[in-house]
Amino acid sequence: MKRNNIGRCRALRKNQTDAERKLWSILRNRQLGGAKFRRQCSVDRFILDFYCPECKVGIEADGGQHYKKCSRKQDELRTKELNKLGIKIMRFTDREILVNTDGVYEILKTAIDKKRAGPPHLYPLPKGERR
């Protein structure tokens, strides 16, 4: 696997925002449902704030620059491109992360649990035949 943007990723890890630092404190060491997350991870031509390759979930901590019209449009295009790769992008504002860390944790935990459970069965077994 070719690693793109490695220098930029390293620089971003060294210069985390307060929100990224807070979020990393609940994602690192498989603390979120046993899922392994990477921070400032290069995927295709993009760098995700946090990424779980196993579940194909990317997390973005959006600061104030993401609220400008041109930035929102760019974020939408980026999300569409990553969705094409099968990656679900979850966005949280820096304020949400810093003020409502428990709520963000619960949303992420639910998403990871759903990804791990896989798609629902189209033809579930009758009650008597379940294992």
SSE blueprint and pairings:
Layout (H helix, E strand, L loop, with lengths): L5 H9 L3 H10 L10 E6 L2 E7 L4 E6 L6 H16 L3 E6 H6 L1 H17 L14
Parallel strand pairs: 3-4
Antiparallel strand pairs: 1-2, 2-3
Question: Would you kindly provide a written description of the structure presented here, covering whatever features stand out?
Answer:
There is one protein chain. The chain is built from five helices and four strands. The protein starts with 5 loop residues before the first helix and ends in a 14-residue tail after the last helix. It has one domain (6-117): Endonuclease, Chain A, CATH 3.40.960.10. With 131 residues, the chain is of the alpha+beta class.
Compose a concise summary of this entry:
The chain is α+β, with helices and mostly antiparallel strands and 131 residues long. Helix content is 44%, strand content 19%. The chain has a single domain (6-117), classed as VSR Endonuclease (Endonuclease, Chain A).
The DSSP helix count reads: 5
CATH class: Alpha Beta
Q: What is the fold-level CATH name, i.e. the topology? A: Endonuclease, Chain A
Level-2 CATH architecture: 3-Layer(aba) Sandwich
Q: Segments where pLDDT lies below 50 for 5+ residues?
A: none
Q: Give the amount of beta strand, in percent.
A: 15-25%
Output the helix-strand order.
Answer: HHEEEHEHH
- Counting helices, strands and paired strands, the structural category is alpha+beta
Spatial strand order of the main sheet: 1-2-3-4
The biggest beta sheet reads: 4 strands, mixed
